[in-house]
UniProtKB/TrEMBL annotation:
The keyword Hydrolase does not apply. InterPro entries: Beta-ketoacyl_synthase, Ketoacyl_synth_C, Ketoacyl_synth_N, PKS_Beta-ketoAc_synthase_dom, Thiolase-like. Residues 3-415 form the Ketosynthase family 3 (KS3) domain. Proposed to synthesize NOD factor fatty acyl chain. Involved in the synthesis of a highly unsaturated fatty acid moiety, which forms part of a lipo-oligosaccharide that is responsible for host specificity. This is Nodulation protein E. Keywords: Cell inner membrane, Cell membrane, Membrane, Nodulation, Transferase, Transmembrane, Transmembrane helix. It is found in: Cell inner membrane. It comes from the Bacteria. Coiled coil: none annotated. Belongs to the thiolase-like superfamily. Beta-ketoacyl-ACP synthases family. Its main location: membrane.
Length: 417
């Protein structure tokens, strides 16, 4: 089988900063946090925690009210981001020749899917006294809602599916889309992930695990502090992020702009514990991604870490990087952008992959915010990025996702020539 090169020709997102992809990366480079204190009016007890919301996003304006009315928020975020990526790739919404898109694919990632549709149903039944729910509840709540809508709206006749692997979901989706294009099964694939995590039950479940960082109105912006000695947990966030992957020759033939090249994907399972990470399992995924991409450790200039700011998780990831990169590890630039955009659950891998692609394209590395002067000695051994770096000649970079269940996934990218 002839392996095809895979170009990234479209990038799109619903940004927590309220603007587009380029502005999003500028915020990251500057170390600006999108985390704010969330207070709700939920009964019996309101939510009160640091959170990242896409507060400026208007689904009706982005999608049109008829289409938006058939979806709940995770699908709003996902479809809107995918439409943006499609436009960025220079592709028309409808094909002049539908047969051209017979093998074009849509592979999406989500951890929670349409959970808000079902939570609304519970509230309506138990709190508001309703006896029946909307007949759209099932199609709004299904995990494959985003890929289903996108395949219909964009006329994609190839595989249409979703992946759920906790916070590795969209990394797995991007990796599987990459393989489809590389192996010639699809000329073009739209991929990425979305999640809407402001579900009462979800927030309370994470609180119950004592993994959510505390914060006040004044301190919430720095609540997520990966690799810091005083880190106190993760910050939940919402969002949608999409990429268009394309057969390299197909992209060149139509004159598409190529942001970067995706060259490798590695995955593994810790096979040891549901929630306790293991360095050896993570190292297997890292090595698999490098091998799949034909990359030596000396070629990788940056790693966007999974870095959730949990006490146990952060040192394990650094240990895995040290195992894989060996003597090269102290010169390996590493940052965790969750410190600014929060943990988007099923969309986490996609937003971090996008940040990694932009780092390669721009020759710039975003920092781990709030880390200066706070580094945990247990997380030493790599080149932590405390402030944004520009003018960095990057050749290749990795994006890590290490999920509950021991599901590990790593993407490898090269800078476009």
């Amino acid at each position: 089988m002839t392996r095809r090169r895979v170009a990234i020709t479209g990038l799109g997102m619903v940004s927590p900063y309220g603007d587009g992809v380029d502005a999003f990366f500028a915020h990251l480079l500057a170390g600006r946090s999108a985390v704010r204190l969330l207070r709700t009016e939920d009964k019996p007890r309101p939510l009160n925690m640091p959170f990242v919301t896409c507060s400026d996003f208007d689904a009706g304006a982005a999608l049109g009210k008829p289409l938006a009315g058939m979806m709940e928020r995770f699908a709003h975020l996902g479809v809107a981001s995918a439409f943006d990526a499609w436009r960025d790739a220079g592709l028309e919404r409808q094909a002049a020749d539908p047969a051209e898109r017979e093998n074009w694919a849509c592979i999406w990632g989500t951890a929670l899917g349409g959970i808000l549709a079902f939570e609304k149903g519970y509230r309506d039944l138990w709190q508001n006294g309703r006896e029946r729910l909307s007949p759209l509840s099932v199609v709004m709540g299904m995990n494959n809602a985003v890929n289903a809508h996108l395949s219909i709206q964009l006329g994609l006749g190839g595989v249409s599916t979703s992946h759920t692997a906790a916070c590795a979901s969209s990394t797995v989706a991007i990796g599987e889309a990459f393989r489809r294009v590389r192996d010639g099964e699809a000329s073009v694939a739209i991929t990425g992930g979305s999640d809407a995590t402001q579900a009462y039950g979800v927030a309370k479940a994470w609180e119950a695990m004592r993994l959510v960082a505390p914060g006040t109105e004044e301190t919430a912006f720095q609540a997520c502090r990966p690799f810091s000695a005083d880190r106190a947990g993760l910050v939940l966030g919402e969002g949608g992020v999409a990429m268009v992957l394309e057969d390299w020759d197909h992209a060149v033939a139509r004159g598409a702009r190529i942001h970067a090249e995706i060259v490798g994907y590695g995955s593994s399972c810790d096979r040891s514990h549901l929630v306790r990470p293991e360095a050896d399992g993570q190292a297997r995924a890292l090595r698999a991604a490098l091998a799949d991409g034909g990359l030596g450790v000396e070629e990788v200039g940056y790693v966007n870490a999974h870095g959730t700011a949990t006490v146990e998780g952060d040192p394990v990831e650094i240990t895995a990087l040290r195992q894989v990169f060996g003597d090269r590890a102290p010169r390996l630039a590493v940052s965790a952008t969750k410190s600014m955009h929060g943990h988007l659950m099923g969309a986490a891998g996609a937003i971090e992959a996008l940040a990694t692609v932009l780092a390669l394209r721009e020759g710039a590395i975003p920092p781990t915010a709030h880390l200066q002067g706070r580094l945990d000695p247990a997380c030493e051994g790599v080149d932590h990025v405390f402030e944004g770096r520009e003018g960095v000649p990057l050749r290749a970079a990795l994006s890590n996702s290490f999920a509950f269940g021991g599901s590990n996934a790593v993407l490898a990218f090269r800078a476009a020539p």
